[in-house]
Amino acid sequence: MASKLSSKLFAVVAGAGPGTGRACAIRFSKAYPVVLLTRTAESYKDTVAEINNAGGKAIGISADTSDVKSLDSAFETIAKELPGLKLAAAIYNVGAGFQRKPFLELSVEDFDVAVGGNARGLFNFAQKTLPLLLEAVPESEHPPSLIITGATASIRGSYLFSTMAASMFARRALGQSLAREFGPKGVHVAHAIVDGVIDIPRTSHYNVNNGAEDGKIRADAIAESYWNLHTQHRSAFTQEIDIRPYVEKF
Amino acid sequence: MASKLSSKLFAVVAGAGPGTGRACAIRFSKAYPVVLLTRTAESYKDTVAEINNAGGKAIGISADTSDVKSLDSAFETIAKELPGLKLAAAIYNVGAGFQRKPFLELSVEDFDVAVGGNARGLFNFAQKTLPLLLEAVPESEHPPSLIITGATASIRGSYLFSTMAASMFARRALGQSLAREFGPKGVHVAHAIVDGVIDIPRTSHYNVNNGAEDGKIRADAIAESYWNLHTQHRSAFTQEIDIRPYVEKF
Amino acid sequence: MASKLSSKLFAVVAGAGPGTGRACAIRFSKAYPVVLLTRTAESYKDTVAEINNAGGKAIGISADTSDVKSLDSAFETIAKELPGLKLAAAIYNVGAGFQRKPFLELSVEDFDVAVGGNARGLFNFAQKTLPLLLEAVPESEHPPSLIITGATASIRGSYLFSTMAASMFARRALGQSLAREFGPKGVHVAHAIVDGVIDIPRTSHYNVNNGAEDGKIRADAIAESYWNLHTQHRSAFTQEIDIRPYVEKF
Amino acid sequence: MASKLSSKLFAVVAGAGPGTGRACAIRFSKAYPVVLLTRTAESYKDTVAEINNAGGKAIGISADTSDVKSLDSAFETIAKELPGLKLAAAIYNVGAGFQRKPFLELSVEDFDVAVGGNARGLFNFAQKTLPLLLEAVPESEHPPSLIITGATASIRGSYLFSTMAASMFARRALGQSLAREFGPKGVHVAHAIVDGVIDIPRTSHYNVNNGAEDGKIRADAIAESYWNLHTQHRSAFTQEIDIRPYVEKF
């Protein structure tokens, strides 16, 4: 497989724990060396090993996207580890912890935590990756892409989800703003509203959609849609898609 | 190529003139025999020949989707020409003529023409194709799909576009309703908001987006996105995408 | 009360049966003579009597807004009955009958009936009233207004509501288009998404929102919001509002 | 005028500088004693004097809504100054400063400032006011209301407005979440998308909408719409309105 890998381009996935992030790392590793950023090494190490064992190339770096210095340091490491490579794709998939609580039981710290990972982290990640994506425009076969994972709460504020919605609406707003600013420069910024439960070990006991077969979203199916976004021709960019199981109520 | 063609499944494209319809017919012909429905034979004959010459299989039928009888007759022809084949994909790409006029210069006939082709035609087409798509659920590798072409006017009513918007909003509403009704039965109903000028002979002299390279949408890029919708896993259906050139203001 | 009535202006309410239409007629009759248009005299006669008995002025006319000739005739009658009066407010509240059925049990006639009353009727009504509203711009204290009643189905397509949604999306599209075209000419076009069950005799036995007090929408409260739209200053027009009971899930 | 003032209820306006905040304070002072919260006394003092001179009752308090302690202190002062009064209406109109800059010229501090005032400030303000609004439910003639000022950037992310949009999307999300949580408890939470330039001294030299008369939004017209939201019957709450000049492109 290694021989098919681009020798000039790479991809980076922030929030590469089990589920979408891991699946994106694996999918994009078929074409590019991949960097996985997660808060702890624990979250990336199995996926990094799996990709490297399969003949791809993966690097894991611990970083907190909500912290500028931590992210600066991560990108310094990337520059050293992958010298001269340009950035073809950046995926922001970080999920901030959030408190699922009635509004009056929340504290402003809960608000800060949600906004920190879900929106401020994307702000920081975009600040680091967009200059690199712009540099890759002339060389990348596919338009360099910043792909952002959203959720139901990105378009709907609701009971128990006030801080989640605030931070995910903000995330979507950043994506939209960046699409309008960087699209004309050749960078594809896309946002995916993932509306449903993802099928990962942690959700294996969840009973969703009455236990229907394929009632939870397969992470590799999300990753395939992200790859399809990345490979769109620049005359036909998609800014936003929704993704949900066939049986999901919406 | 013929050997790769499904021998059990076919696709149908309504509104298969130059642009999106033609490109979809060609793209889907790589996997399925394809039926092209257009109002006049003039509109389909070159594409049909091109596909057949390339080793695919294509059939053209003249039909007016806004007219139930015309469509009934077309599907009787299909049943004869492709006996026993199940329907894997149906694409509705019909563009009704519409009057680009100030509201008070329009007549109710203008309203009827726009609604006829843009919404009533989809109603009829969905009535004919959904039973066939449902039948194909157990056999189709990819979830049988009804894919609907929309436009900017599908989500925005504006000056000079009142009848266009009325009919395209209606079309989108049908798509959404059908997605919620038929998704749980395994049929993928998706709607694409095509926001920009498509690069076809008729628009070759249009100066859009300041004449930027790739400032018009390549029809084959739309078709590729439709194919990607068709091949999504049922745990991860997209109901709506937007498609526009990287330089388009939106 | 008659003395407070405008002697130069009038209002017209299409779809003035029990509920929103009746309540609007009563509310606007406090300021203007009011014309009630309904398909049958049965639907307007009580409200007309009530307004006239209360010292207001009301006229009832039988008309089918989906039929151009019927509407032409109605406006000829209006011109005779209210000579020289200008139109300050036009309210479109017609509810087409629609079949609440699975999609494959519908016929294209069901589609036509829904579109006829819900969208084509507004097209016709707007064609008749906009010229009159434009004429009133210099004389009306409040910006002449075309106010359109929408519903949940105006923004959401769903199972059993495919034709309802198609026609109500179309209605909303017309409203938006007309707002953008006629707003700059001084006519206020507004659309109200009424999301809930209205409290009328026909719905008295409905158990909605767990039977909560005020769990159904009071028609006079809708009418008050329409009046507030009508009296907005032209520097601060609202194009769309939603209206729902405090206990409604949305 | 004082005699008409409620002796049991009061209103609070956060962000009561010139424009919408000032106009709301004046409008609501016709019915309630009003508290004006602004970052500096300079911003509230003229309006407070104007209301008191006109026979109303107004109190100004300096507070920074993005700072929990500052807001705690302000509400302690309110409890002392207006002992026993319940809160009928709370208006959040704070406008955070924001940097109108290309994305790559922004720093994360710019993000924090925008989110601080536009979203975190509302979070804090809602935490303080919702318990008071809930207490007033049984006594207030009109449903106690939390009304939030939004902007074009609340629903559209764009070039130069990335941090503004992120923070205003977040604000809207909070409003939606709170409406769904507190509506059923009798508190009316509404959000207004103010889409245009407000006519205040600072904008007097702006040439908007080609200098059309009434091409800027009159602040008192916004305040009137807020009052109309506040006085809606609980069976007919509006969650969101847009407000723009008749000549505004949208």
UniProtKB/TrEMBL annotation, chains A, B, C, D:
It holds the Pfam family adh_short. It comes from the Eukaryota. InterPro entries: NAD(P)-bd_dom_sf, SDR_fam. PANTHER family: OXIDOREDUCTASE, SHORT CHAIN DEHYDROGENASE/REDUCTASE FAMILY (AFU_ORTHOLOGUE AFUA_5G14000) (PTHR43431), OXIDOREDUCTASE, SHORT CHAIN DEHYDROGENASE_REDUCTASE FAMILY (AFU_ORTHOLOGUE AFUA_5G14000) (PTHR43431:SF7). This is Short chain dehydrogenase.
